[in-house]
């Protein structure tokens, strides 16, 4: 007989517990065993791995949850994925995938027999094997593990626009202390019960992180429940350590919360969205290293931080081998696997079928579900540029119109993510077709806010990045629009995503996903008003430390090149694309045809700005980025006045990776092509958007590197004018002219006059801005002729 | 008559409101006025600044709080500082500092008269003036503003070990959405009411961030209160928009919470610490842009996101000048300032005296209070190194003993901060003299946890960094111990702190503070067990983008050099010191005398490892970092066997900045010294800890750069062995030998044999680890002879 509080009949209870024991047995085996996987022989030191690595502490709890989720999946034919925040619980996720058969399907050598089990055990945390984390190699995973803090954002990202999916997300109490995780509970204000799926957060309190107690395990229950009530959830507590009692409790709780999720969804889908629902969440309090050794060497182990990693790390100590053998046998493996190592049929039958297995869900291998975006023609947004410099435009505003059309054409698999900067970065056009998303209270004064909005804005770069990653990893598309300086906030998340992509490139069953696209605007050169704290172009430096095969950096100089680059990025797969572009009105250089050609090449001579046709230049003026391009062209214009016979070649770089040798990056120019562009012996004045040394880093192997002189941002800034900001960093037109003059000795007396004129102009500029607070009109209004 | 709910008598109320009006008047003046500061003439366009920049929205709320805090400070002679999370509220903090007189004391040109007021207005967000944020230039500030998210961690950091201080911390509802802020509420589990001061968080809900509504402003009041109850606070709500009503409410609330803070402290200080107190906090809900224009161009402005920045940004539009004039006059400036621009005496008398003024608190200019650390002699911890490579030690474990003694000698102004990695990074010795800090529940199984602990561990790098910054900025000392890969999490916080230090270097009244010291251990080369996600040496690259005058990077190769470097860093001021060091048992190279000499030079030839004495080497083998040093010496050892007559010079780099030209960094070697070390024409094989291109970036201007070949981490990693990890990145001894051979042509046939031997050894290694999971014993146990 079953009841609401005892929902499992004895048979169900026995089987569910057996699955859990099997998962635990396989987990301990992975951590310890080199051989003798079925314990057919008495355990000996030769059966133990030489290095014991892994994390037992969180593992049994993860498997406990897994087993229980499988019951409800199977009973109710649910579509679920499992986000395992405690990434160190790799053994659990691998064990359950193996029990479900998925593991052997994707890795046939890890077969469902004694040999396969031996390999399963050996490969764990072993050279040539698999990491101890939930890693790309783990079927069913969407980039948990490694760095902590992002499980819940990933889970919500996975749930957006997946109405039939329930994302179970286990949050460890260690991870719960991180900032990103602490704010990600608020994601429930952005989840629409009609067209989004559900997230079921399971806070797993086991009391300790590596060494110390956790914050949430040490606050009274009333505070804990108040906290999650405050976060907008209905918390259900499952607390205890006796397995059989806990099974009934967990099963009863899962029945309630799944019913509650369905009630919320059914209500909203039948009657329309009304008010933000109070979604359920589970607080599972169980001992760290549950079912592991109670004591080791006389010290309490189960339930303490001594269970965090390997409870007995030195197996040569007296008694340790016996503890391990007893521990393994406590799971009664002979009831779980037959003599060939095959999982008993009645246990195998507990696994959901096919893609219902969480380890085999296509949502956790998003490339399988990825549909190409329906792409508007970016040429439709082209700015009409009758001649270079002939018109002004705000590049990102133009880009925003293209993004608007992408939003419109892809109403269920494309979203925009931004820390409240969509409008500030000039993508206002998207609000013609959608809103900022919010299922919280909306007031009459709110503009473009609604429960169906596809612009995800929360003032947390972490949340935006985590949502987007979860959305991409489950097979959808998106764009992150951010201030350039503050994208550093997610530098470490970017690291983890780039590493994930790199590893996935070498896992055949992982299918390519859409690229992670960043627009970085409100960039360093136009933070003159916000000042020094808002000026940092270093994210590019950070990005290009990652493997060349997964990263791309673009610095389109105007609107049409930005459109072309944006189109390219949206069609790409498995990259991180960084686009840096300005939002202020600026001269436009290329018409659409020229822009497409220029972006396709990624780098090129601008003949209309050069006067070296048919011969070698005396100086090469290169530029990358919108403001450096403007200053370079203004410098060229000054040089034409002062030294009209000087032969100048102007090169613009859109694709920064073109500068590297092809051995370093697939986009890299051959040395021959590089030399043709940059000459082998002429001075190069390179005006660059970011920190100048990056250009040296990219080009130090090139023939003409010793003639390369780079100007860029060198950490000089305060609240001032746009032009004063470039002057402070010596990237301005006058300093560029001086750089040229200094490097072309033949200019002689002309040069002396030109330098004097420059000095006078800079002094005039300084006086003018101190008085009027604005740039000299002749500088502000300068246009290319 | 006053009552508990109406604590202000009419006179008090009038004056308090007048102060607030004065602050608001000065704030609007800063945003708009170029001239006519006292409105003696009818307002004209010529009185308006040409560029209107700044943030009005949060400003009146900040001033409202300031005025009320002043009342309780003065009435009760409290010591308080004001942390203004909404950093864009610069005008408010500047206005109040000006009203208090502090501003004119530190900037005599901004005098307390009409001329001074004109300058005060003009300088704001004006070239050559001050930023729109609460910036280093703002007296009373400790690094709020700029990037959001860290106000509350800073506040708690300021309160630690400051028993008489109350830190009022205003958290904007925008900032409250960030991850770091969301977790920093939990800081109350780490604040000891006996020897720490108090933090009074004031959550300022004004409903909007730049463009969209905020999360916390749109949840029902029961959820909001539950959230803060769950965070462990007693929330007090002050909600409304009528100034006079709000004054009484706020005053009544402040009386209650200050009494409550004192009761908590008195209880704990009289009777000892018992259980974590429930500290009070205030939720202030008031309109965005409070007291500003109700509508502009027919659109609601006060109370909406249209008040976020400048309510009327285009003053040439009809009616705008009139709105501004009416707005300014609504504060009745003629009642606040006399005709000379001097603040009325009765208002001036509202300011607390001297250092009680929050703008003049020495706690907000920590260098004033900074005491030197009492320093133990680091030589006492020296590892006895009879000959190079003669003993093994765990460098950070040795360092931990020195840190232990620093903790012991400085019981009230030095703390250790770590995301639960103090023990993992081998600083266990500190637990001989102190505990992990926690005022939450402590259980019998906890090790080294106590309410007086000076080790601040929370699994949040943000929190650790924020606490430490707050602690340093208020004049104390500390150390951050972290895993190398995950320090990227605070990359953006580091940016802000480094920028703060750079600006402070040029503000005479800002006194130097203790350096921010990072130990980065569990570094890239010994994350073989945790795998790829834990491998990232790029923080160094990030750090050296910041201004040379504030950053230092050290890579001590062993324990004694680590001790020497640590001592140096703890004595330094106004820097960010990054120390990368290993925690695993490794050969020790230098005895203490040699270590001190080597660290003092920062770079040097190791004669005992070189055989080029008295002549030029044929090859220079340089190394930086413990593992690269080991591999370099092992390579030298192999070369001695295979090509004994090869003249090798070994150079070790401790201070990475030595490599840069002196024009780029004050530590940089002169070109002459560099050439003496590295030769002008011999091949250099450089084994480097991090990404190899960094060494190129630092040295590209050096004479011999074209002969430089760098090995380092190139994003190849997975779970494997330590040696396999260096092999995967070609930093291993065998690849280094091959690099040498490839660059010394005269070696001829010997070289061919040596390369074959290397190839064989690498194959043997690969087979061995695949089978045994450990490195070849001859490699693992290799020792320098």
Automatic annotation (TrEMBL), chains A, B:
Keywords, ordered alphabetically: Lyase, Thiamine pyrophosphate
Lyase in keyword set: yes
Record protein name field: Probable phosphoketolase
Organism: Thiocapsa imhoffii
Gene3D superfamilies tied to this protein: 3.40.50.920, 3.40.50.970
Biological classification of the source: Bacteria, Pseudomonadati, Pseudomonadota, Gammaproteobacteria, Chromatiales
Enzyme class label: lyase
Pfam family, one: XFP
Domain Xylulose 5-phosphate/Fructose 6-phosphate phosphoketolase N-terminal: from-to ranges: 8-368
Gene Ontology MF term list: aldehyde-lyase activity
């Amino acid at each position: 007989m079953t009841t609401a509080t005892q929902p499992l009949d004895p048979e169900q209870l026995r089987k569910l517990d057996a699955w859990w024991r099997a998962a635990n047995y396989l987990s301990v085996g992975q951590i310890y065993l080199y051989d003798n996987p079925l314990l057919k022989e008495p355990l000996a030191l030769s059966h133990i791995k030489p290095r014991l690595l892994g994390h037992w502490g969180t593992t049994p709890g993860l498997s406990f949850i897994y087993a229980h989720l499988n019951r409800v999946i199977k009973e109710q034919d649910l579509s679920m994925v499992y986000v395992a925040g405690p990434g160190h619980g790799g053994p659990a996720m691998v064990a359950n995938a193996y029990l479900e058969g998925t593991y052997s399907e994707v890795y046939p050598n890890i077969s469902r027999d004694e040999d396969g089990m031996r390999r399963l055990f050996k490969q764990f945390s072993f050279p040539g094997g698999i990491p101890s984390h939930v890693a790309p190699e783990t079927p069913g995973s969407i980039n948990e593990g490694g760095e902590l803090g992002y499980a819940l954002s990933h889970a919500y990202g996975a749930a957006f626009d997946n109405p039939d999916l329930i994302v179970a997300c286990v949050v460890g109490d260690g991870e719960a202390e991180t900032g990103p995780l602490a704010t990600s509970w608020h994601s429930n204000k952005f989840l629409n019960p009609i067209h989004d799926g559900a997230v079921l957060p399971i806070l797993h309190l086991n009391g300790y992180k590596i060494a110390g107690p956790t914050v949430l395990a040490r606050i009274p229950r009333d505070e804990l429940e108040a906290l999650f009530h405050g976060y907008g959830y209905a918390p259900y507590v499952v607390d205890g350590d006796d397995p059989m009692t806990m099974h009934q409790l967990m099963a009863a709780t899962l029945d309630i919360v799944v019913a509650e999720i369905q009630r919320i969804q059914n209500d909203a889908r039948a009657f329309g969205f009304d008010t933000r629902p109070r979604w359920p969440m589970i607080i599972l309090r169980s001992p760290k290293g549950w079912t592991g050794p109670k004591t080791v060497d006389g010290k309490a182990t189960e339930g303490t931080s001594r269970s965090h990693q390997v409870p007995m790390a030195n197996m040569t100590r007296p008694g340790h081998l016996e503890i391990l053998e007893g521990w393994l046998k406590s799971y009664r493996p002979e009831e779980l696997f037959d003599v060939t190592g095959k999982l008993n049929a009645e246990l195998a039958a507990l696994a959901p079928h096919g893609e219902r297995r969480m380890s085999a869900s296509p949502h956790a291998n998003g490339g399988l579900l990825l549909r190409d975006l329906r792409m508007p023609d970016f040429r439709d947004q082209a700015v009409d540029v009758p001649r270079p410099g002939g018109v002004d435009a705000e590049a990102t505003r133009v880009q925003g119109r293209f993004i608007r059309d992408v939003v419109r054409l892809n109403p269920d698999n494309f979203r925009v993510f931004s820390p409240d900067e969509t409008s500030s970065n000039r993508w206002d056009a998207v609000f013609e077709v959608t809103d900022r998303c919010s299922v919280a209270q909306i007031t009459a004064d709110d503009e473009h806010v609604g429960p169906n909005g596809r612009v995800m804005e929360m003032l947390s770069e972490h949340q935006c990045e985590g949502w987007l990653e979860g959305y991409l990893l489950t097979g959808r598309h998106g764009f992150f629009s951010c201030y350039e300086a503050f994208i550093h906030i997610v530098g470490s998340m970017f690291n983890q995503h780039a590493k994930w992509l790199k590893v996935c490139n070498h896992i055949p069953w992982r299918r390519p996903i859409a690229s992670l696209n960043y627009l970085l605007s409100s960039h360093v050169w136009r933070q003159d008003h916000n000042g020094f704290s808002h000026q940092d172009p270093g994210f590019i430096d950070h990005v290009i430390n990652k493997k060349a095969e997964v990263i791309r950096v673009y610095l389109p100089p105007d609107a049409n090149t930005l459109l072309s680059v944006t189109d390219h990025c949206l069609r790409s797969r498995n990259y991180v694309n960084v686009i840096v572009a300005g939002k202020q009105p600026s001269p436009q250089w290329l018409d659409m045809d020229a822009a497409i050609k220029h972006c396709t090449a990624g780098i090129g001579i601008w003949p209309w700005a050069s006067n070296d046709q048919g011969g070698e230049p005396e100086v090469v003026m290169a530029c990358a980025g919108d403001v450096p391009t403007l200053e370079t062209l203004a410098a060229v214009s000054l040089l034409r006045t002062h030294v009209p016979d000087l032969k100048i070649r102007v090169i613009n770089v859109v694709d920064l990776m073109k500068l590297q040798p092809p051995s370093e990056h697939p986009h890299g120019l051959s040395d021959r092509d590089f030399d043709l562009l940059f000459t082998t012996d002429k001075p190069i004045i390179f005006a660059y958007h970011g920190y100048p040394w990056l250009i040296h880093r990219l080009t130090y192997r090139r023939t003409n590197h010793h003639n390369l002189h780079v100007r860029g941002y060198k950490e000089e800034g305060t609240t001032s004018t746009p032009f004063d900001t470039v002057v402070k960093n010596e990237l301005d037109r006058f300093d560029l002219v001086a750089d040229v003059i200094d490097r072309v000795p033949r200019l002689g007396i002309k040069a002396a006059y030109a330098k004097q004129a420059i000095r006078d102009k800079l002094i005039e500029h300084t006086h003018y801005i101190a008085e009027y607070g604005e740039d000299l009109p002749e500088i502000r209004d300068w246009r290319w002729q």
